[in-house]
Write a structure and sequence with these properties.
Length: about 450
């Protein structure tokens, strides 16, 4: 009989924590999990799920306009923000219940409260100390806001999903995927939108050309984008906010949102007191087996600040549960992870950027295509789709694929399988395309661009 209350105690019921908990329990371990906010974590509640719903909502203004070219004469459309919020909240509540059901059906004990680490084999939750052979930290991340005068007036993506009313205008600060996605969302919902970024071009780390093409497409939609620009201070002026820019200019707006990154949620967990090493950013340091500097304490997901994606956290939870409680070996393959930015238009990517490929291989061949998708051929839309293949010339292996256009994420998911399997350009060429589709362009690009 175990000397501990539980074999595994998980702190954080997000995607990674829930996956690890219920799989471990399925393998026969006695498992508990604690959550002090909401089941499903960031992704389900204030991340990818509600964001995707908002993206869908924001597309309809363009869809109504494009329908005219296909013979439709839509009447005057009216958008109700509260209806979207209510329906979104109902869907999130449904998902919360599903997560609770998954835990319950596998016998995981759920503690509704904040858990902190007491020592290597015990946690404290709801003023009760509980012992566990192993502890797993899966608390995710939290939005970061700079310490500037007036920071109390700033909202983050957390609050953006629960605004009491839609502002007439908004300034979004940031250059990552969250900032870019929300710029498209608010603009599509009829808000006068300005995106500020302190750098030269947003989405640092993505392929340079696809970043440039997305910038051009967003400008076509009349989203005001200011690079090399930041806010030094914010003041409230009645129902408006005045932003003092680093250029010395002032900008008045109805709302200021910051999407300037996220940090690991490790504050107040008692980790350092228990001997767990954190890096300079507050992330939990782990080895290849997700073990911290304390051998009985593990960590997965965004709290480790490595590859901060929901599917990666769930994959890590799966591997850890199998290793600890089913005797399986294996590891998460972090190479060639397909990624999508739900910008407008969508951006999908897998593998190396052109810049990375040229640094890694002696010679690469680039294939590109820019065109009007058939969906827009009868409309007044000037939106262009951009597609790009990057090939290692010596092996003919496709090492990078990038797309900007409708349904890019849906298309790149399938392409990701090919890249993971090591497909060559010759194999792409030998694949019959589905006609007429945008996706077929990936198997019909025959002429490389000049170097």
């Amino acid at each position: 009989m175990s000397i501990y209350d539980y074999d595994l105690f998980v702190i954080g019921a997000g995607s990674g924590g829930v996956r690890a908990a219920r799989m471990s329990a399925g393998f026969g371990a006695k498992v508990a999990i604690a959550e002090d906010r909401y089941l499903g974590g960031t992704c389900v509640n204030v991340g990818c799920v509600p964001k995707k719903l908002f993206v869908y909502a924001s597309h309809f203004t363009e869809e109504f306009e494009n329908a005219k070219g296909f013979g439709w004469q839509p009447g005057k459309a009216e958008f109700n923000w509260q209806t979207l919020l209510d329906n979104k909240n109902r869907e999130i509540s449904r998902l919360n219940e599903i997560y609770g059901g998954l835990l319950d059906s596998t016998g995981v004990t759920l503690f509704d409260g904040r858990a902190t680490v007491v020592d290597e084999h015990s946690v404290s939750v709801n003023q009760k100390t509980i012992s566990a052979e192993r502890i797993l930290v899966a608390t995710g991340g939290w939005p970061s806001v700079p310490d500037i005068p007036g920071k109390e007036h700033i909202v983050t993506s957390n609050e953006a999903f629960f605004l009491e009313k839609l502002p007439e205008s908004i300034v979004i600060v940031g250059g990552g995927y969250i900032a870019v996605e929300f710029a498209g969302i608010f603009h599509g919902l009829g808000v006068d939108t300005t995106l500020l970024y302190r750098g030269e071009l947003f989405l640092r780390g993505f392929d340079q050309e696809i970043r440039e093409h997305l910038h051009a497409e967003m400008k076509k939609k009349d989203i005001n984008i200011l690079f090399n620009t930041n806010i030094d201070a914010i003041e409230k002026d009645g129902e408006k906010y005045n932003a003092e820019l680093n250029s010395g200019e002032n900008m008045s707006t109805g709302l200021i949102m910051y999407a300037t990154g996220r940090h690991p949620k490790t504050e107040g967990l008692g980790l350092q007191a228990a001997g767990v090493e954190l890096n300079s950013k507050g992330a939990v340091v782990v080895n290849d087996e997700y073990q911290t500097s304390v051998v009985s304490i593990y960590a997965i997901g965004d709290v480790t600040d490595r590859v901060n994606l929901t599917p990666v956290a769930t994959a890590e939870g799966t591997v850890l549960a199998r290793r600890l409680y089913d005797g399986q070996s294996g590891a998460v393959d972090y190479a060639d992870i397909p990624t999508c930015v739900f910008s407008q238009p969508n951006l999908g990517t897998v593998g190396l950027t052109e810049e990375q490929a040229r640094a890694e291989y002696s010679e690469v061949t680039i294939y590109k295509s820019t065109f009007t998708p058939m969906k827009y051929s009868l409309s007044s839309s000037d939106e262009k789709t951009f597609m790009k293949l990057i090939v290692d010339k010596q092996s003919d292996k496709v090492v990078g694929v990038h797309m900007l256009g409708p349904d890019a994420g849906e298309i790149i998911q399938g392409i990701g399988i090919a890249i993971k399997a090591g497909a060559t350009k010759a194999q792409f060429d030998a694949t019959i395309g589905i006609h007429p589709t945008t996706a077929e362009e990936f198997v019909t690009m025959r002429t490389p661009v000049s170097d």
